[in-house]
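Q: I'm writing up a methods section and want to include an example of the input and output format. Could you take the sequence below and give the corresponding predicted structure tokens, formatted cleanly so I can copy it straight into the document?
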Amino acid sequence: MNAYRLLHVEDEPDIREVVEMSLALDPAIVLKSCASGADALVAAAAWQPDVILMDVMMPVMDGAETLTHLRNDARTAKIPIVFMTARAQAREVEHFLSLGAAGVIPKPFDPMTLAAAVRAFLPAPQAALTQAG
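A: Here is the clean output for your methods example:
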């Protein structure tokens, strides 16, 4: 079974805890959490997650600014970023996608289906290579 690295960025401790419990339901997801955009920049560069699940409204450095910094760093530029936000009207979702987000998961989210929602943004498993012979 392939394990996927997921970096979760959320300033609210209660939401981080619910996300952690929700994603623990999927044994293929390995989770690392950060409480700020600044922490996420460091963690993403060092840990190289397969996807970043990030809150939009955070103090100091919001999700959009964090996304910009991640896109401007060659080490993190190609990591898919999915926003989690209560601001999920069509116009707002279009704006987040135009910034380079891979998608948006609306808050409140269903803890029982969060892992499945996140999996939609994970890269497909690579097929085993065979030698012709």
